[in-house]
Amino acid sequence: MEDPRYGADALVTMAHALLRGAGVRDDIARDVAEVLVEADLMGHDTHGLALLSAYLAELRDGRMARDGKPTIVKTRAATELWDGARLPGPWLVRHALETAAIMALGAGTGTVVIRRSHHIACLAAYLPPLTARGLMALIYCSDPSAASVAPFGGITPVFTPDPFAAGIPNGNEPILLDISASYTTNGMTQRLHKAGQELPHPWVQDAKGVPTRDPAVLFADPPGTLLPLGGLEAGHKGYALALLVEALTGGLAGFGRADPREGWGATVFIQVIDPDAFGGRDAMARQTAWLADACHAATPREGVERVRLPGERALRLAREQREHGVRLQPTILPALAPWLAQYGVAAAPALL
Question: Does domain 184-226 match CATH 1.10.630.10?
């Protein structure tokens, strides 16, 4: 029997109602709900509604703000530094992207750096609205309150997975990057550990530095760490990417790992670029289309059906699930059940 599916709009309505029940301002609650469901639509299901129960707990305990606005700490012609005041990350990022887009349309590029944001969920979920306008968008994120990734050659956690994403206009279907400087993420390893399952490859190491597929080593005493992208063989590459992300986020924000921890959150670098300020949108489209066609035409190695572009599967899945319903991880609605009861919100009904 197939897993049940749920209408995307019904899931947004449910998530919005739960956040409103927790006291979140209406427009903030709407943005958070939409971003979480968009992540599930795209198949990034560790960073979709799976986060909502934890967000509600943060709101209950006063660690996520319900209302307010960011403070503009510093501004120039095409840059701004915001203090996010521990507001929900999806709302802050959406507004920062729009601010950066307005800058880019005037100056060619716009950059907003946010310190003291709460968690920002799935980076890829923010990109399609920008690429649909012919703009290129970049997002880099770190969480200065946590450390789970070891630097290359070490066993001591220093970084978070430090994800980064890019939306590249490419005609009707953009190229969407959403990757991290580590092999895997905290959300995925937690899910697999709770389910008693292993990773597909040895992407983590135990406290002695022995690589393994078993996420349980991350929850041992002493705990292991996530390996940087490239692992034991080429992890210097992921390590270098993490240092770049940390510099663009905590470094430019002037707030990060050198400061007292405030709890689960994010420091974020956002940049929007208008190709018309450079070679032009048509010229960029010609270049990206050539690359896309060349990648698609590449001969696949044995066992691979065809070469895909980054984001291609996510966009196709989002279209399919928007039409036929979203498949949720089976743990999501049970985790939300106490919150649904507390706030008197009806669960999204399964589609027949």
Answer: no
CATH topology of domain 69-183+233-297: Ribosomal Protein S8; Chain: A, domain 1 (3.30.1370)
Comparing C-alpha atoms, which of 130, 99, 134 is closest to residue 278? 134
Cα 46–chain centre separation: 9
> pLDDT of 109-146, one tens digit each?
999 999 999 999 999 999 999 999 999 999 999 999 99
pLDDT per residue as tens digits for the range 230-285: 999 999 999 999 999 999 999 999 999 999 999 999 999 999 999 999 999 999 99
| Residue ranges of domains in the chain | 1-67+318-352, 69-183+233-297, 184-226
Q: Token match 């994403």: residue?
A: 165
CB-neighbour burial class of residue 293 (10 A; exposed 0-12, middle 13-18, buried 19+): exposed
Question: What is the arrangement of strands in the sheet containing 225-226, beginning at the earlier edge strand?
Answer: 211-212, 204-205, 225-226
Spell out the CATH class of 1-67+318-352: mainly alpha
Assess contact for 276 and 133: CB atoms under 8 A.
no
